[in-house]
Amino acid sequence: MTESQRLFIGGEWVEPGAGHYDVVDPARETVVGHAPEASRQQVYDAARAARDAFEPWSRTKPEERAAILDRAADLMQRDFAGNAELAQAESGATTGTARGMQVAVGVSRFRRYAKGALEPVEEAMTPQINEAGPMGKAGVTGALAVRQPVGVVTCITSYNNPWANPAGKIAPALAMGNTVLVKPAPQDPLSVFRMAAALEEAGVPAGVVNVVSGTEVAVGEAAVDAPDVDMVSFTGSTAVGQRIGEVCGRSMKRQLMELGGKGAAIVLDDADLDSAVAGIGTTYAFYSGQICTAPTRAIVHRSVYDEFVAKLTAYIGYMKVGDPRTKGTVLGPVISAAHRERVESYVELGRKEGATVVAGGERPALEEGFYVAPTLLADCTNDMRVVREEIFGPVVAVVPFDGDEDEAVALANDSDYGLIDYVWSGDVARAFRVARRLRAGGVGVNTIGRNMEAPFGGFKKSGVGRDVGSYALHAYSEWQSIVWPG
C-alpha cells in the first residue's frame, strides 16, 4: 500500500503536477501510501473532462447507468478485504468500523443508487383550465414536472469515512445522469481512488468520474471555482462550508452542504437511563468521536443527573483504547497529531471554564498513534465553549436542567448547529412532542439509529439541502416544467 497514486482525469491515470505527499496511519504513524498533489490546472482539466462527458452520460438509458453502478458495487465487494484494510490504515478506524460502517456502507450505497437510477423522474401535473384573456383563447393546459441532472458536480468529502461519504455523493449523482469531480479529504484519499478504479473497471465512460487530491488549499478552491462546475456537494466544517458558499454564490452554483454538528441529547426525568447511556456512549466508539451526528451535548434533568453521570462514567470505563486492529479495541486514534492537540485543548478549556472532568482528560499511555482518552465533562452550562463549539473528538459535555421540557428544548435549540438531536423519555408521545420542537434536521427518539431512506441534513449552520435515499437523487437534480395545450 506504499505505491505512489496517480490522479484520475478524463479516464486516464495521470501523474500529479505537484508531486506526492505521505498518507499517514494515525494508529501507527507509518506511511500508508503516497497520494498525488494535483496542480490547479489539473483540477480545471478534470472539470473540463467532466463537462465534455456530461452530455452523452446524461442521455444514457437509466438501465445502463444502473448496470454500471451495480457492477462497481460487485467489484468493491470482490476486493472487500483489501479495501477495508486500506480504509483502516488511512482513517484509524477499528476493524469492525472499517468493514461494517465504511466499506460495506459504501458498497450498499452504490447498490441503492443502481436502483435509484430506475426511479421515475416525471411527475404529471393536474391539467389547468384557463379562461380567455390577454394570453390567448380559453383552453386546458397540461404540464409535466421532470427532474433533470444538474451537470458537473464537485464532490468534496470528509476524512471520517473514506468510503460511505464519497459513495453517498458519487453514486446518486451518477444515477441522476451527472458527471463528477471528486476531491477527497487529504488525510485519507487513497480509498476514493480505489472506488474510482472500480468504476473504471465497471465500464464508466471516460470523464464521467474524475478524482483529484492534494493538501494545498488551491486544490479545493479550484474544485469549487472551476467554470465548468455546476454544483458543489461538500461534507466538512461549517467554516469551510461558508467559504464554499460564498464562491458558489458568485456564479450561482447549486450547493449541498452537510456541515458541523453539536447534537443535543435530551434526557428527561422519565428516561430509560441505561438506553440513554448506551446511545450517547457510542459517540466515543464511532470514529473516535469524529462524527457530526454524535450526541455530544447531554441535557439531563436534575432528578436523574447524578445517576446518569455515574452510569456514563462506568460505560466509558469499559471502552478499550488502542490499536484499532487489535480485537476488543473500541476506540482507535483520531486522524492526526494536530487534531489530537485540538481535542486536548478543548478539554483543557473545559477545565478553565469550570467543567468537571469526570472521565478522561489525560493522553493514553501508548507509544505510538494519535490517541485521545474518551472524556466526560460534567457540570457544564450552555455558555461554555465546550458546549457550544464542535470538538469532533471523543468528548461529551453534560448540562443539567431543573425545569420542564420547555427548558430542555430551549437549551437544545440555543446552538448555532442543528444537524441531529436526540430525546430519551419513557413516554413516547412526550418524546415525539419534544422532538417536533427541536430545530434540527433529524431527531432520534430513544435511539441513535437512523433510517437510511429518511432525508438527512441540517438546520442553521449545520448545512443546506438534504440527501440519503431518494432525497439524494432529488438533491442532484433540477426540476424542469414542460407545458402543452390540451
UniProtKB/TrEMBL annotation:
Matching CDD domains: ALDH_CddD-AldA-like
InterPro entries: Ald_DH/histidinol_DH, Ald_DH_C, Ald_DH_CS_CYS, Ald_DH_N, Aldehyde_DH_dom
Aldehyde dehydrogenase domain residues: 13-482
Domain of life: Bacteria
One Pfam short name: Aldedh
Keywords, sorted A to Z: Oxidoreductase
Oxidoreductase is among the record's keywords: yes
Name of the protein this chain belongs to: Aldehyde dehydrogenase family protein
